[in-house]
Structures are given as C-alpha cells and as structure tokens.
C-alpha cells in the first residue's frame, strides 16, 4: 500500500486496473495476484517511475507493475492501438467487398501525424487518400491526393520527433490543397477544397470547416485525437461533457462517412454510435476498436511475471530478458491483433443473425440484471419494452450495443470460470501456452505453468474464445435450455471445438479474406457456429460430461475418424442431394473444394455424437449403428422435417424453446428406434426394416400421419410438436 500511495502522489497519469476477483472473494493480501497496473495514459517515464517504486518495495510484480516502460513494449513504435483499430476498419470494408489495402479509399479524421493513433492509422494502408483532418492547431485539406505521394509525406511527418500539419510539404498537396491555422477568424478556401469536404461555400470560419470535415462524404471517418465530436440527436452538448468541442460537434445523423473507426477514446458517444448503426453506418465503439493497446499491456505484464520467475532462479539475466522481450515484439503484435480480428468477427456474426437472436439477447440482459451486474440505462441498452419495439420495427441490436453485451459476456464468464475448477483441467494447459509467444512457451514452459495468474489467464483465454465464437448469449442460452452450469458449457464447448478440430477450420475460412464475397464468408462462419451450438446443446442434454476433457475429445476424434469417410455413402438420397447442392453452392461461391465439402457436411457432422451414443447403447458396431440411424431417418422422413424446421424462426422466446424441444424429441425418438431395431433384430441383415415390419399397421399409420403433418402445408411449431409426440410414442409402445 505504501508504494501504491507513492505512485498516486507522483502522477495522476497512471490507470490502475483492478481485475475483479470471483464473486464473494475478498483479496486483502498485499501480494494480491489480481492487482495489475497498466500505465496506458502515461509515458515510458511514468511507467519506469512506477516500476522503480515496485522494485524498491520488492513487490512481486517487479517491473511488470506498469507496462510500456523502457524495458516494455512501445505502443507507438508498434502502432498496436491503431493496428488493432485498423483490423476493425478492414473488416467493415471487407464485408462491403472492398479491400482497402489494395484499392484507394477516401478518409477524413481528427488528429495529426505526430499522434500515436492518428499517425499510425494514417499509415496503415498505402491506398489511403486523406482528404482532410484537423487537430487542436491546424486544418489540413488535400482535395485529390495521390496515394503514393501523400503516404510518403505522412510517413516523413510521422518520423519527425515532433510535427504538425504545418510541417507538411505543401508542394505534395493536390491542386487547391490548403493547410490553415484554427486561430484564423475566417478562411477562404479554394473551390475544390470546399467541394472535397462537402462545404457549400468557400469562405467560412475554422469551426464551420471542421464541422464540414466531420460530415464529409467519404469512405472513412477516423478518430485519432482527443475530444468527443459526435453525439446522438437526442443528446445535448451538456450531456456529452466535452465543452471544448461543443461548437464543432455534430449529431450522428449529420455524418456521411460509410465507416467510423475509433482509434481514439470517446470520439463518439454511445447514443451516436447506435444512431449511426441504425441508419446503416458501420461502426463498433472505442472499447472494441482500440482495445489492442490495453491487450498489449496485459500480455507484456504476464510475460514479465513469468520471466521474473526465471530471473529469481538465476536462469535468466535481466539484460537477456530485455533482449527476449524485444525479439518477441512481432509475435506479441500478432497475438494482440488476432484478438481484434476475432472480436470484430464476433460482432459481425451477431449482427448478421440479427432478429433471430434478439429474444436470446433480451434473456441474457435479464439474467445479468437478476445477478445485479447490469444497468441497461447506464449502458444505453434497450429496456424490455424498447427491445420489443425494436423487434417490431425490424431493427436488431447495432454493433455498438452488441459490443456491450460481448464485453459483459466475457467479464461474467471469466468470473464464473475462475470460481470453478475449469482452469485446473489439464486440457486447458494448451490454452494457457497459446496465450504466450511460441518462442517463450517452448523455453519457459515451467515458468508459465507456475504463473501466479495461471488460472486467470486460462479463464480469460477460454472466455474470449468461447464468446468470440459463440456470441454474447451463447452461454446463457445453453444454461437456460439444458439446466447445466457455465462450467459445463465451457467444457462442452471445448470438447466440440477440439473434437471437431475447429481452430484449423476457422483458419481456412480466415484465409478467404478479400478472396470471396464478404457476406458469403460470414455464411461460412455461421455454418461452423451452428455446428458448435447444436452439438454443444446435444452434449449438455445427453452426456453427463463426467469423463476428463482429454478423454471426451479423444473419443469424439476417434468416432469422426471412423465414421466421416463413410458418412455420405450411408445417407438417404434426400440428404445426399441436399449436401451435394450445398457443396456445389459453396464451391461456386469461392470456397476451396475441400472446405466446401466439409462445410456442406456440417449438418450431418452434428449427428456424429448421436450415432456414437446409439452404437454404445445398442452395443453395436459404429458403422452398423450409422446405417440403422439413417434408415430410421429415411423411414420417418426426418431429414425433410429437419430441413423444414430450420426455416422456422419464431420471434417469441418460448416458441423457440418449443421448437427446440420438439426437435430434441424427434432426435431422441430416432435414436430410440434405431437402438430398438439393433437390439431386437440384431441378426437381421436390415434391423430397421425388420423392426418396421414387426410394427405392422400401427407404424404404417404413424408414418402416414407424420407425412401429412410435415408435408401438408407450412411446417409450424405446433405441427412439429405433434410430430415429435407421435415419434416419441413409438419408442414406448
């Protein structure tokens, strides 16, 4: 406590980030492993000062107390905050089928080339046509910049120790380009300069010009400077709380840029983001876009904690450690940017699911409120009535709102994991090791496993991966539908992820960036998401999960190896035709042949655990169980029923539960009939045919009624419920 007091007396530029312990746990130990400091607002000097005090008091964090010092990662040098935000910007454009790394695009922004975020952001693509920008000193307008020439000049300014827009070589500006001081009372712009920013007059005040820049009809509005410049139409400047920029600030409705990138903090209010998103604009939030800097600090601190153990043992000197830190810079950047990539993908997938998920998102908010963890008004999230109105208008949650839910999902799941025994499961060691640079993981394996924050790192990695892949309401939805705990959901998700080797599959889809239509690529991800959700749900309902995770995963891998090569040959003709149609469509859409084939089979792959349970229950060979399983499917036209059921998207939450329940009953009945056939007619060449024949007229009537129910008009939840009841009756006759 003494050295913390010393720090706070020196400067107010150090952010203290206290990682929240599990619910009900109070940490009073001065060596509290939840206490970490990141000097994200400070400079390397402040970090060094903080770390020196930490070392003087022999605090266990040593110089990991504050990140970014002289022996830490230089965020501006790495450009990590801007690079992370640029991952978000690239995704927005990629999903519009534009590659801004190879095709010119127009940009305006707030900041200058001496700034970390604006400067690095303006150098992320050589195709950037920076039309205009302003900072606290100057206004820059370049009506028709040459991408190569202007990029080189921006790079020169960035490399100067200090620079302003006045240092820009004016001979490199396009015709009628200008750089003017904000201190002027009035500015007369060339006609081309005024037209470039959409200003209807040529003589205007600096304030009017800056407002025009914010409203310019460009591709990207990039925030890299200090201040809040956009508010919601329903907000007042007083509510925004940034008096210095009241005269400049616009409403979201005034913005004509297609995309907003928030490299800086608080450039846009949350209400403005929501308004911009509802109007068709593309933006996330500063918490999503510029998270790379904070993430980098976290990784640095945890690397130093692990290596401090080696230094204490005398197996690593401080100079050698510093050299290793520097050598791992690129890999640390890769680890950090991967999180930005996946997190923005999670928002895209949640946004694409749109209204289909809104009821589950509402239930998730209610669950958070019940635990006293969420105040919707504070987080600018719709009330239950507001959510119903949005649904009635056909307006799903925006990316900005989904970003809030994503954050809560991760925070809550992190606490739930730490409070459980999940981090102690040996299988999660690979998630722990994957958090660190590969070079370090190989040489300092023991130090990483002995990390004082080992459980917390595992919880963070697993929570990030699960929520990024499953979406904000994934855990809550499965907990509600199965009655299982968050820990059970985490273990099951992991079993499905690793049992189906999904990380490699995701990498194959990632590799299609800018090679296929952006929306088709999202559809490919959605196919994997459905596999994860449906298979996880099946396991949670039908498997106790009492075996060690490694054994569960090994079992699934083995069943897949045995069954997948034979799957297509065992399928009914209807299913074969559907899969071939799906495979051809994916291939035609740009997916490589092997990837198209695997994704086309995903719906069938979901059935593998069910087939394995059938074989186990009937004590039958897995191939024989699969043949019986699919014969039952064809006899009762289940593939057609499943196909029709997938097209049902009831808006009511309880109708969705009823639909899911009916599908589960049909699945259980199929398995029950297959088991009955395999056990009662084990000697028959075709056990299912023998079982059907033995059932006589009773089974024939049920099959007729099922056909009438499922093919005599549009399939509804009610019809599906009756069909599931009919099939269930067959298993208890």
What do you see in this structure?
With 733 residues, this protein is an alpha/beta fold. It has a six-stranded mixed sheet, sandwiched between helices. Strands 1-2 form a two-stranded antiparallel sheet. A two-stranded antiparallel ribbon has the order 7-8. The longest helix is centred in the last third of the chain and has 28 residues, at 653-680. The relative contact order is 0.06.
Blueprint (SSEs and pairs):
Elements: H1 2-10, E1 15-18, E2 35-38, H2 44-56, H3 75-78, H4 80-94, E3 105-110, H5 116-121, E4 128-134, E5 138-141, H6 147-159, E6 178-181, E7 187-188, H7 191-196, E8 203-204, H8 206-214, E9 220-223, E10 230-231, H9 237-240, E11 250-251, E12 259-262, H10 270-278, H11 286-289, H12 291-313, H13 318-327, H14 329-353, H15 358-370, H16 384-392, H17 399-418, H18 429-435, H19 438-443, H20 445-449, H21 454-470, H22 474-482, H23 486-499, H24 502-510, H25 518-542, H26 549-563, H27 567-570, H28 573-588, H29 593-600, H30 602-605, H31 608-618, H32 622-635, H33 638-646, H34 653-680, H35 687-711, H36 717-731
Parallel strand pairs: 3-4, 3-9, 9-12, 10-11
Antiparallel strand pairs: 1-2, 4-5, 5-6, 7-8
